[in-house]
Amino acid sequence: MAVRVPFRRGQTCLLRAAQLDVDAFADFYDAYARRVLTYFARRVFDAETALDLTSETFAVALERRRQFRGRTEEEEQGWLFAIAHSQLAHLFRRGAVERTALRKLAVEVPSLSDEEIERIEILAGLHDLAPRIQEALHHLPAEQHEAVELRVIEELSYAEIASVLGVTQPVVRQRVSRGLRALAIRLGGVEAVEGAA
Predict the structure, then answer these.
(1) DSSP labels, 153-177
(2) At what angle do helices 25-44 and 126-138 cross, to 10 degrees?
(3) Cα–Cα distance between 173 and 71 in angstroms, integer?
(4) For the chain, does the N or the C end have fewer beta carbons within 10 angstroms?
(5) CATH fold of 14-117
(6) Which of 3-12, 72-81, 126-135 has the lowest mean pLDDT?
(7) What CATH number is given for 125-193 in this structure?
C-alpha cells in the first residue's frame, strides 16, 4: 500500500500524480481546499453555498483530472481556479448550485454546524465585508440595487424578477450584471463577478 506524502510548498504538480493514482488526489485537495473555499465564500457571502461550490469544483477536477496537461504548481492552480470560476458563473446564471457532478460521483455534501459556518465566515473575512457590501449596495442606481437584491439575496429566478419588476428577462440580466460589476469594482474585486449574469 502506497504512503501518501503531504503537499509541500514548491512541490511540482500534485494533479499529475493524481492522474495515475486517485489516492494522490487527496493531497491535491488538501493543498487547495481552503483557498477554494475562501474564494467562494468571499464571492457568494454564504458558507453553505461556498462549501457546495467547493465540493462541486473538486468533483469536476477529479472527474477531469486526466485532461490536465500542465506540469507546474502554477498551472494546476490556474486549471483548478478556472473550474472554480466556471462553477461560480454557473451559480449566478442558474441561481442555485447544480449537483450533477456530485451525484455522478456519489459525493455526499456534508451539512455544516453553526460553529463550522462561523469558522468559514471568519476565514473568508465575511464579517468585515458585510458593512462594506451594504454601503456599496446603497451606491447602486435604484433599479440595479433592486435587481441585485432580488437575485442574490431573495434568490429569485430571472423570470420571477422580470415579473415582479414588470420588465423583460434581458433587462433584468443587464441590471443584475451591471450591479454586480459595480459592486465588485467598489469592493476591489472585478474578477469576482465576471460572467455572473
Answers:
(1) IS---HHHHHHHHTS-HHHHHHHHH
(2) 40
(3) 39
(4) N
(5) Rna Polymerase Sigma Factor; Chain: A (1.10.1740)
(6) 3-12
(7) 1.10.10.10
What does each C-alpha distance from 33 to 18, 139, 140 come to in angstroms?
15, 34, 33
In sequence order, which ranges of the chain are alpha helices (DSSP H)?
Answer: 14-20, 25-44, 47-64, 73-94, 100-104, 114-124, 126-138, 142-148, 158-165, 169-187
Check pLDDT > 80 for residue 131.
Answer: no
Least confident stretch, 44-48, 53-57, 120-124, 159-163: 120-124
pLDDT, tens digit, 9 for 90 and up, residues 40-87? 888 887 778 888 899 999 999 989 888 888 888 888 888 999 999 888
